[in-house]
Specification:
By secondary structure, the protein is an alpha+beta fold. The chain has 19 helices and 22 strands.
Length: about 675
């Protein structure tokens, strides 16, 4: 059947379905009030017009669909090209499918201005990092798709974007098709036929349905929806752990103008000292997750034979990174610091793929404070866990490459669904397991661990005895068990009936809060390619977007925490100075430099990367002669609430007044005058 004839049939059927579907289309009304990308840009422009002394709009890029990425700068230095104050970059909706994050960014704009939170720092706020995808939330039919409009020929034919999902039954939504097939992999969930789950062949289950996004074979190549419009998810187009040859990642990091515009903006502004990504992850609530298997093992480094002789190492032995650094340091030229990054680069050990333990200390502490803050404000955290950060995302790039404190926040996930049961449960959760030592976990015994594994829906082949043995043998740790469970769909494991926690929460949310409007009942449709199919399932965005009437209550509590965290940025200053005359015209000059705030300067990842650049101390005066120390001294790092002493031996024949300057691009600056005593 030719494509044009197929579409004629579908259009005719859709006309008859219009009146029936109109009531379903109306269900989108509970989202009325969200700002489209154009409306959000208008808010930034109007804000800049109303506050010209402290705000300025920057254009980062134009999306492939012709939509501008605007950033609002807020601060006392908006009319200065040279910045002396540190800055915070906030990006929102990088996926383009999380509308509440755009609202959060606009709420933050108002908050920063109203509370004078930019009196001693600069804010850069981007409400939409992926406007091509974001605009689909405001179009009909409603379709959720993270792709921008960058042309990508997914099926490698002579056309681009010719065969994507579409609303073939005319109900106003692009949802899901299921159809019976001998090779079907899916079956309805027991007791809840609206939900589907994969058949478990290990349990003797046979699949019934195949599942596909709603649409037809537009190009007649025997495949359905294999070449949708557009192609790149902006939040997979950043360098850290970028993956080649993926469906939406792009050809290379920065291959789409939105990501490239962000690169150029950040690299031209070294004052950026902290970032926030408002999306689907939440480093403020759950610290960056580890557990990635990287190519580098810093605990078992084998030294190449050609280099081992030079440092006195055994090429057949393995060493920790600290041991290698100690062996290499004596060979380094004066003033050259041997760091992990230097060793890793020289030996070709690969990139770090898990957060540094020193950084997790402050992430965990701040997460605990955030939970206390939410509890004090009566804000429930009984919801599905935020998603884990994806490879190639902005937040991973910011933390691992820029080396600055990086936080992310999501603002809503489905409320957690708890099934009532007459039996007592194990009392364990993935979080509780993660807080245990391996020994404490083993001491729980097979019965309790077995009950827990059953509660979380662990595969049958993982018995309590096997898991205990893996922990005792060092193949598993409690933290690794918790991480694996937390990264399952919906943030928690499937229930015994096979339905995921997310699906259970979705059905409860739709039935109890949306009067059933967020789910399309499965109904038969005569498909031009597949015959009889059923179309239905959750409507787009219902899983991650609350009704607009909830937005203010959600954001009024959570968004202020961004300002709270901004106040914890590292701030360096000259704590005190002292001089001592030693005779012979020589003076010892001492200065204590402190980081008066909570966060370190920079992060441990920043120290490892040697990025951002260090702070500098300048001791200057006319004719000043340095006997010990230098005119310029670098401060590579300074922990939160920490002070370090710096000393110089100098002779100053021309003046008794020295100038001490502390300069940083992203932790404020300071200066002091030092008067020398004693004889010249």
């Amino acid at each position: 059947m030719r494509t044009g004839f197929k579409l004629l049939i579908i259009s005719t059927i859709s006309l008859f379905l219009f009146l029936i579907s109109s009531s379903l289309i109306h269900s989108q009304s509970f989202w009325e009030g969200y700002h489209s990308p154009e409306q959000a840009n208008n808010v930034l422009t109007e804000t800049a017009q109303n506050h010209p002394d402290i705000t300025r709009v920057h254009t980062l890029a134009q999306s492939p669909g012709g939509r501008e990425l605007l950033v609002l700068e807020i601060g006392p230095e908006v009319n200065s090209e040279e910045k002396s104050l540190p800055a915070i970059l906030v990006v929102a909706n990088m996926e383009g499918v999380i509308p509440i994050t755009t609202e959060a960014s606009l709420k933050l704009v108002d908050l920063v201005i109203e509370e004078n939170a930019a009196d001693n720092k600069t804010w850069y706020i981007l409400p939409n990092g992926n406007p091509d995808a974001a605009v689909r939330f405001f179009q009909s039919p409603l379709r959720k798709d993270v792709r921008n409009e960058f042309p990508v020929n997914d099926d490698m034919d002579d056309q681009v974007g010719e065969d994507g999902p579409e609303d073939i039954n005319g109900d106003g939504f692009v949802t899901t098709m299921r159809y019976k097939h001998p090779q079907g992999e899916w079956i309805p969930v027991d007791g809840e036929p609206r939900l589907m789950r994969r058949a478990d062949r290990a349990k003797g289950e046979r699949g019934i349905y195949k599942i596909h996004s709603e649409g037809i074979d537009n190009d007649g190549d025997g495949q359905i929806n294999e070449d949708p419009t557009g192609g790149i998810n902006v939040n997979r187009n950043f360098p850290h752990l970028f993956r080649e040859f993926t469906a939406t990642g792009g050809a290379w990091p920065g291959s789409t103008p939105e990501a490239r515009g962000i690169f150029e903006f950040v690299f031209s502004r070294p004052e950026i000292a902290m970032t926030f990504s408002l999306g689907e992850t939440n480093f403020a609530l759950q610290p960056p997750r580890g557990g990635r298997q990287g190519s580098a093992d810093f605990q078992n480094i084998q030294i190449p034979e050609s280099f081992a002789d030079q440092i006195g190492a055994d090429p057949n032995a393995t060493y920790t990174m600290d041991e290698v650094i100690r062996m290499v340091e004596p060979l380094a030229p004066p003033g050259f610091e041997i760091t992990e990054s230097v060793v890793a680069s020289f030996l070709g050990l690969g990139a770090v793929v898990n957060p540094m333990q020193e950084d997790l200390v402050f992430y965990n502490e701040l997460a605990d404070r955030y939970k206390e803050y939410l509890e004090e404000h009566g804000f429930s955290t009984d919801r599905l866990s935020p998603a884990a950060a994806k490879d190639g995302s902005f937040e991973l790039w910011s933390y691992y490459h820029l080396g600055i404190p990086t936080f992310s926040m999501d603002f809503w996930t489905l409320p957690e669904f708890r099934e009532e049961t007459e039996d007592e449960d194990s009392g364990l959760t993935p979080e509780k397991i993660g807080e245990m030592s391996d020994e404490e976990f083993v001491d729980l015994g097979e019965e309790t661990i077995g009950q827990f594994l059953e509660e979380v829906g662990a595969p049958a082949q993982f018995s309590a005895a096997q898991v205990i043995g893996m922990v005792q043998g060092g193949m598993l740790t409690t933290s690794r068990i918790a991480e694996m469970l937390a990264q399952m769909p919906g943030g928690s494991p499937a229930s015994p009936d096979g339905a995921s926690a997310e699906d259970k929460a979705l059905i409860a949310w739709v039935d109890n809060e949306l009067n059933g409007e967020g789910f399309i009942e499965w109904s038969e449709f005569d498909h031009p390619d597949l015959g009889t199919v059923e179309i239905g399932g959750p409507i787009p965005f219902v899983k991650n977007t609350p009704p607009y009437v909830m937005v203010d209550s959600l954001l009024s509590v959570q968004v202020p925490w961004i300002v709270t965290l901004s106040e914890k940025m590292a701030r360096l200053n000259i704590m005190s100075t002292d001089t001592e005359y030693l005779g012979g015209g020589i003076h010892r000059v001492t200065a204590w430099i402190e980081n008066e705030n909570y966060l370190p300067f920079p992060t441990a990842m920043g120290v490892r990367n040697q990025n951002p650049k260090p702070a500098q101390i300048f001791l200057q005066a006319n004719g000043l002669d340095f006997i010990e120390g230098r005119e310029r001294t670098l401060i590579e790092s300074l922990g939160g609430m920490e002070a370090k002493k710096f000393t110089w031996l100098v002779r100053s024949p021309e003046t008794r007044l020295l100038q001490l300057r502390l300069e940083t691009t992203h932790a404020w600056s300071d200066r002091s005058q030092i008067e020398l005593g004693g004889s010249r």
